[in-house]
Design brief:
Mean pLDDT: 82
Largest sheet: none
Distance between the termini: 14 Å
Low-confidence stretches: none
Shape: elongated
Amino acid sequence: MSVFAFFMLMVTALGGTLVLVEWYDGERQSAPNGTLAVVVSHVALALATLVLLALFLALRGPGLASAMLGLLLLTAAFGISAFLRSRRGQPNRRKEGDVGRGFLFFHGAAAAILIVVAIGVALSAR
């Protein structure tokens, strides 16, 4: 199950990279002030989660499991906040540079699966 959690983190990171590249190209200009900081925080937290999950898989400490799960939930909160903030900007009528719904669905679904699997991994570590 731990390996599946790591795999889901990689899949989520791939989707997140696609969303970030597409968002930064077009939607960033019409997003409200402060959205870029939230997006960068989300990415930084996601990278920290990746490192913490790798450490947990190597060491199997229950403290690392709890820290990883907490960081993952914080990352998800920043991701949801970034999504909601980016949607409050000026409407993009021609949809130029609009982040594709497919990328967002892929990233969000993978993140939701990852959270469920991470909860299972954290509980099994105790």
